[in-house]
Amino acid sequence: MIEGVSHPEPVGEGAIVVRIEGEAAAEVLSRVRAVATVIEAAAIAGVTDVVGSPGRVSVAYDPLAVEDLGAVMAAIAAAAGAAEVTSGSGSELHEIPVAYDGEDLEEVCSSHGLPRERLIAAHTEPEYVVEAIGFLPGFGYLAGLPEAVATPRRATPRRLVPAGAVGIGGGQTGVYPFASPGGWNLIGRSSATLFDARRPRPAVLAVGDRVRFVEADGEAVVAAEHSPPPAGAGGPAAITVVEPGLFTTVQDLGRPGHRNAGVPLSGAADRVSLRLANLLVGNPEGAAGIECTLVGPRLRFECEAIVALVGGEFPGLPAGVATRLAAGTELAIGHATAGCRGYLAVAGGIEVEPVLGSRSTLVAAGLGGFGGRPLRASDRLGVGDRAGRAARPPVRGVAEVLRVMRFGERPQVLRVIPGEQAEACCGSAWGRTFRASSRSNRMGVRLEGAPLPGAGEFAGMASVAVFPGTVQLPPDGQPIVLLADAQTIGGYPVLGQVIAADLPRAAQLRPGEPVCFEPVTLAEARAAVRQQEDAVADLRETLR
Hints:
Cyclophilin; seven-stranded mixed sheet
């Protein structure tokens, strides 16, 4: 067995962590890579993702698919015990061409008192090691930057960093695979395509790989294709978007299995509501539907359709009831009167091309859904086979599931399994009331209230794997509850994990709505998700 490998321990009720120690950073990363590889190869039932990060391997599992958590932990321990570290542990060396003409290059040179040539030499000299993949799909956090050129992140992040930009952030460097907001200092650009969903291995870099930067002529470094071509409708157009609403996307239940490449789970922020809507129209529970946020779309149905809306309450359709629409019907979902997100299921499911096994939309990387973006006016969506589908009569089962989910309580109480930094950071967080911020999105619900203490104690902490439901505490002391599109790696203190049964309610928080946390045990969390799943199963049986 590899030395310095801890026994697996649960983190919330959806993840297990194996801690790895060693005297040298390179040694630890070799161990991380070896342990992650052998756990992934073990194909343990219920395990969905294996993510390596500095000093740990995090294993995500489906709590609904795991009856015996002890057996899963024993299987992980056995796999980790069988891992062997060989020289290099199978790591690859990647050479990345860089044109050193970034817009922050002169400022970085000036801050260190170095001429341009010296800074370039310092950046190209080391052989970097990939510590983690996250922030964006394929984004590698590279360790090994000389201290002489380490540069603090920018005080104000840019709204948009171009794809291929090469940056320095503190003591790390890396390449942005996609255009995105970012706070690193931009010193150059590269034509390297570090992520492509069409490849068997979408991310070029992996934890433990080595990277060398090679100076290239600016004219030779041209913009590369950093994302797959947009995915359009997969079948004959059946729905035309007349008005798109505030933020409307195609979502299914997400794309597990790709977190080690920095790809978030994505999918419906409120997974239970999408499942219920699909059940009402006779679809498989994971079929793609339409997720709308606060203001729903206006849609024209070009052919007869059966639809159902579950989640937030919108005036355009009665909640929790299947409705038959005639061809030519225009359906205006309207403004949400309760909750935040509505899920419109259409018999046959929304047909768009799957990307990495899912039709869900990840806007940050332009993946999946309809062209990797929110819906726009005049978009035309296909619908799958509707043969034999019939509108379901109103059933009490939907109301019962929503009762179990406690959608109606005020303030919303989110049950949390306390995390590693809870004691140091929370103070009186348990029971304190926060309010959901208008700056919330599918990545996370930002909360506002009296700042929590302690975040500063963890400045510079190593980034760790995070999941939907992780409660982070950034330096301003205002907690963030991560949702479906959250990054896979985070460097903020972790207060805990919102339990799976309460994540749908977190996704339904409206701006300004009060919310508080309540600590619970792992056993209580597992019991809550089982109770919720039993209510869904009862509805499923009723509809049969």
